[in-house]
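pasting for ref
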Amino acid sequence: MDIIDLVIKVASFLSALGVIALFINKIVKKLLNELHHKINELEKNQCKNYLVNFLASIEKNEKVTECQKIMAYEMYDHYIKDLKGNSFIKDKWERTIGK
């Protein structure tokens, strides 16, 4: 009887650990998803800021360096493709830079 009781207690303990692990996993995933969303929004806003400043410089006929142009193209590409940005930036880019 003692061995049977021990096996039952160990099995119950392991089941409880499994339930606790699933619960913790669910909470961690939710927190990470929220964090990921906030990071994406921050990154999207940084891209918008850079692109607005870059496009304003172009419209004012200010001189921009080759490095700034490359950065702007990379940011715009990242903004549209990766961050799924589709705001006034896309319209302004197409009017200012062209397709």
